[in-house]
Amino acid sequence: MKRILPLLAVLLAGCGDKPPEGWTGYAEAELVYIAPPVAGRLATLAVRSGEAVTTGQALFELDATPELAADAEASARARSAQAQAQDADKGRRGPELAVTKAQLDQARAAERLASIDLTRQQELLGRGFVAQARVDDAATVLAQARARVMELDAALQVGRLPARDDARNAARALAQAAESGRAQTAWRVEQKRQSAPMPARVQDVFLRPGEWVAAGQPVLALLPPANRKARFYVPQSVVGGLKLDAPVNLHCDGCGAAIPARISFIAAGPEYTPPVIYSNQQRDKLVFLVEARPVKAEDAERLHPGQPLDVTQ
Question: What is the reported pLDDT for 206?
Fold first, then answer.
């Protein structure tokens, strides 16, 4: 009898549960939170939780009334500054130059008359009919007429010139500043409308139309197929044989065929008790966290965050 007991113990040990092949883990998701960079009241919500969206599809829109008003004001300021800059590059208007030109023609006519009168007075002085004072007066009138001609001629030339370089540079700088201000308001208006940056599924919606959205506050979360992954733990005796991009297969209840995946991450340090591993054989052993991502996007859709998984090579 004493010889039979050890034999029975060996047989019973052999009939125990066989250690599972592969490793246990769970599915996890890396969510993409969509938040506007500006604040405002949520006006429209174009999607709902669980809905699939494509790149560029509208997600939500904030009330842009203040920004639209500011954009209109900035646009008007930009047009005004641009017009002032263009005006600084030009001379006086044609009708204004025509007035100066007409005054110049009158001054030249007066100059000719003053010159003729001076010549006549000089002839009369030579004959003794007039005094020297008359000649001096005629010479003064001629000098004044010539000065007037020179004045109006210079005014006409100046009228054809643009503004001074400093004034023109200042006008251009104001125009550029106005355009920059308009670009800022246009950007704020554009940011009030958010669209999907990639194909994904709406994982959760945090706010509803009518609620106030702070700048940077997520309105909803997207889950792209590429952001679904498996997290599992392997013993320290196995981790040395794993490599990045190595193929593995993911198994889950109700998922059908195995999901081909590739290892995307291997932890550099060990852990002791993994959070979602219930195997008594692996407890209290050194294990390393490993992550794997499905090869195909359609297979990734079969993984749901928190879902238990079995991983095999």
Answer: 96
- The phi and psi torsions of 309 (rounded to 5 degrees) equal -135, 150
d(CA 12, CA 4): 12
Q: What is the dihedral of CA 194, 198, 201, 203, to 10 degrees?
A: -60
How high is the pLDDT of residue 93? 65
Contact 118, 215 (CB under 8 A): no
Tokens 């197929």 identify what position? 225
| Residue spans of the chain under pLDDT 50 | 1-20, 278, 282-284
C-alpha dihedral sign at 73, 78, 83, 84: positive
B/e letters for 198-233, b = 16+ CB within 10 Å, e = fewer, are: ebbbbbebeeeeeeebeeeebbbbbbbbebbbbbbb
Nearest to 33 by CA among 66, 6, 59: 59
Say which residues have a Cβ less than 8 Å from residue 79's Cβ, sequence separation at least 6.
none
Which pLDDT score is estimated for 5?
37
Rounded-to-integer distance, Cα 83 and Cα 41, Å: 36
